[in-house]
Amino acid sequence: MRYKNLQCSVVPIPADETKSGRARFVASTSKPDRYGDVIDQRGWNLAAYKRNPVILLNHNANSLPIGRGSVDVVDGSLQVDIEFDMDDPIGSEVARKTEAGYMSAVSVGFNPIESTPRSQLPKEDPAHASKGMYFSRAELLEVSVVTIPANGDAVSIKNFLHQDRSFKLSELKHILDVDVREDTVIVTYARLQPEEPEEPEEPEEERMPKED
Known about the structure:
By secondary structure, the protein is mostly beta strands.
């Protein structure tokens, strides 16, 4: 099994749906992680997870789940609505810390079905790069609330769902202003100065999947 972490802001659920013990996250995007790996969001197999929609804490499959999740791919990202088990002491404590903002990261545990080194993709492919793996198909097995994420650059779901996709997140220096209107979010940001191209690196060997 492989794990991919994502740090993101907890998004308030609409008022007519709000109740204690619920939170909504972006669980995965097609943005490269710090290892250079990319998951094609169109290739998620969610059938197994929907039959057993467990929410774990820090990928600890030896402990009981702390909640259950409802997942779907929306606007190019894997999203999860978490319903914490408020009758479980750990579940209710994680829910409290999540709602209070002390925990704001989730991680997916998945089984790679089809993968290719990004260096072997066609050069015109947006996912082509000198390092990392490209997962064209992956089976979601579990979603975890985690304390320390691997990817600290992810945007919150409320910005991700509405932002202009014409730029790359890696080109942003910092956001200057966010103007939220009825059905539009206008983000004003500064661009990084282009850097000199780096020397191509030798392709990395594929890492073996992690076992449960």
